């Protein structure tokens, strides 16, 4: 279980930062300038800033495991949308959704190891 949580954390951290190094490729693929493609980074940052509090409230009544799985699904769907998009707008929607899932799952990932069995 710990290796899986570590792998998820690595994937999420990597997906956060990898766009910075690939801006010129994104701009070429989407047919926009590099500075316009840089909005993908901004949209992700905005999603990470506003998403976790909103999503945490939305998943407050769910068990932690279900909330984590839902956040990971939102993260994955966001990246699939972004990867398959042919326009900057759709790519930004995908990045925003991925940021919502990333921020929300980060909250649950930090709490999961502490939710093990009670000491005897």
UniProtKB/TrEMBL annotation:
The chain crosses the membrane at residues 41-60, 67-93. Its main location: membrane. GO terms for molecular function: transmembrane transporter activity. It is found in: Cell membrane. This is Major facilitator superfamily (MFS) profile domain-containing protein. The lineage of its organism: Bacteria, Bacillati, Actinomycetota, Actinomycetes, Kitasatosporales. Keywords: Cell membrane, Membrane, Transmembrane, Transmembrane helix. GO terms for cellular component: plasma membrane. InterPro entries: MFS (IPR011701), MFS_dom (IPR020846), MFS_Efflux_Transporters (IPR050189), MFS_trans_sf (IPR036259). It is a multi-pass membrane protein. Residues 1-120 form the Major facilitator superfamily (MFS) profile domain. It comes from Streptomyces violaceusniger.
